[in-house]
Write a structure and sequence with these properties.
The complex is a heterodimer of chains A (115) and B (115). Chain A is globular and about 40 Å long. In chain A, the strands form three sheets. In chain A, strands 2, 5, 6, 10, 11 and 12 form a six-stranded mixed β-sheet that branches. A four-stranded antiparallel β-sheet of chain A has the order 3-9-8-7, with no helix packed on it. A two-stranded antiparallel ribbon of chain A has the order 1-4. In chain A, strand 10 and strand 11 form a beta hairpin. Chain A has no helices and twelve strands. Chain A has 115 residues and is mainly β. Chain A is 0% helix and 52% strand. With 115 residues, chain B is an all-beta fold. In chain B, the strands form two sheets. In chain B, strands 2, 4, 5, 6, 9, 10 and 11 form a seven-stranded mixed β-sheet that branches. Chain B has a four-stranded antiparallel β-sheet with strand order 1-3-8-7, with no helix packed on it. In chain B, a hairpin with a 5-residue loop joins strand 7 and strand 8. Classes of the chains: A mainly beta (115), B mainly beta (115). At the A-B interface, strand 5, strand 6 and strand 10 of A face strand 5, strand 6, strand 9 and strand 10 of B.
């Protein structure tokens, strides 16, 4: 069955440090890939997406993600974390040519930022 | 441009009662999807409506239902509430349906607590 794995349930980093959140998917073909962020008490906000083309995609708030087909991964990175980045991060995938119903979500990674 | 608006934001019900949640999508968006978010199960797809028709449905019992009005506003209803229905219910809208490339814009959610 198709699945999305975010291996790290919780990560703590210091402000100013670099960040990498991992996302692996189990899928036969290259899917569409998304990262969303959820701040406490809020809905989800799209950080970035990958459909095709350049495997390094830039998103909002200084985030970027790299699609690696050979590793079935779509890891999220940020060079310097800010305290306001503390939130829950979700990776999601959907088959290219599929529809929203098949959007499959990881269980999320909770990010804490130490001052 | 106003975002996705969900009401009420918080509500408390008792077992056996029913609840109706409302979602107003972004102006011009015709697709509305509903998700249930719980700590243990993560984000689970409930259903999607487009042009007043249910287009997709997740694996939830018949106690969960929804509808969409001609102005694209949507409601979901849960009857005979159970303790396990306690969750954050998220609504998301997108301009179209039928493609995994449709980016979802989420509301802040309705937090339901069942006692």
């Amino acid at each position: 069955a198709q699945s999305v794995t975010q291996p790290d349930i919780h990560i703590t980093v210091s402000e100013g440090a670099s960040l990498e959140l991992r996302c692996n998917y189990s899928y036969g073909a290259t899917p569409y890939l998304f990262w969303y962020v959820q701040s406490p008490g809020q809905g989800l906000q799209l950080l970035l997406k990958y459909f095709s083309g350049d495997t390094l995609v830039q998103g909002i708030k200084g985030f970027e993600a790299e699609f690696k087909r050979s590793q079935s991964s779509f890891n999220l990175r940020k060079p310097s974390v800010h305290w306001s980045d503390a939130a829950e991060y979700f990776c999601a995938v959907v088959p290219s040519g599929g529809n929203n119903r098949k959007l499959i979500w990881g269980l999320g990674t909770s990010l804490a930022v130490n001052p | 441009k106003a975002g996705v608006t969900q009401t009420p934001r918080y509500l408390i019900k008792t077992r056996g009662q029913q609840v109706t949640l409302s979602c107003s999508p972004i102006s011009g968006h015709r697709s509305v999807s509903w998700y249930q978010q719980t700590p243990g199960q993560g984000l689970q797809f409930l259903f999607e409506y487009f042009s007043e028709t249910q287009r997709n449905k997740g694996n939830f019992p018949g106690r969960f239902s929804g509808r969409q009005f001609s102005n694209s506003r949507s409601e979901m209803n849960v009857s005979t509430l159970e303790l396990g229905d306690s969750a954050l219910y998220l609504c998301a809208s997108s301009p179209r349906t039928g493609s995994g490339a449709n980016v979802l814009t989420f509301g802040a959610g309705s937090r339901l607590t069942v006692l």
